[in-house]
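General statements about sequence and structure are easier to judge against a single worked case. For one protein, we set the task of working out the structure tokens from the amino acid sequence alone. This step matters because it turns folding into a mapping between discrete strings. The amino acid sequence and the backbone structure tokens for this protein are reproduced below.
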Amino acid sequence: MPELIVPTGLLYAGLLCLGLLVGSFLNVVIYRLPVMMETRWRRDCCELLELEQEKQDSPLNLATPNSHCPHCKAAIKPWQNIPVISYLILGGKCRNCAARISIRYPIVELVTGLMTMALGIFFEVSPALLGAVLLTWALISLTMIDVDHQLLPDDITLPLMWLGLLFNLQGTYVSLSDAVIGAMAGYLILWTIYQTFKLLTGKEGMGYGDFKLLAALGAWVGWQMLPEIILLSSLVGAISGIALMFLKRRGKEIPIPFGPYLAVAGWLALLLGNGSYGSVFAHFGIQLI
């Protein structure tokens, strides 16, 4: 099959635009998916307890209802929903009621665009680039949902694991055997740490979503990269936790989501390891003993 050659500038511009557009959709996923899950849990509880279910005004999913201002409920027109640009044109306010729009929305769009564009530096136009793009978008969604709700939805982590195995059927990033072992080891490592910590302290140190996320990352980058992912995420998590305690005067008892640190470490492992088991730390000039 002939190789598809795309000019570098055109590739970067295309990835940036695609990332910006998808970033707008990820904002919808980040906000709505937890609400959809809570609605589903309430419905299941009502069915189990044989209680009358609450009536909803309109169904909520990723497609409906259309985007609208949370304050005045005015529909957001297409030209008002252009990633980043519309926010700047509107001055960060709703055109209808002038309520402030959170700056987080354009930030998610911009970060998604830049991270998607960055993939063009590490991957040629190939299935590896497609997989890296999908993984990046999923990790951004998981990171923000975990920050907001300390929740890593199975709706994303489990398909992400199977997708990693699918891409590695032909050894896109690692061999299939390394990917399968990575998925199993990723889950069992954190599950073992969780059970040991609970046995020693009587407390839960992390959630099951963290196990599934590391399993998914193992399916993408192989078992060889798991020690670095765990070490890097633990270091960044510890530094961030200490910083938050001092800057925001948070107590030690307030839980800090671990998913974002796993996501960052896993993304770096995919890019810098890139299937050759290269060290992430080596790219930053850090020598591990």
Remarks:
- The chain has a mean pLDDT of 87.
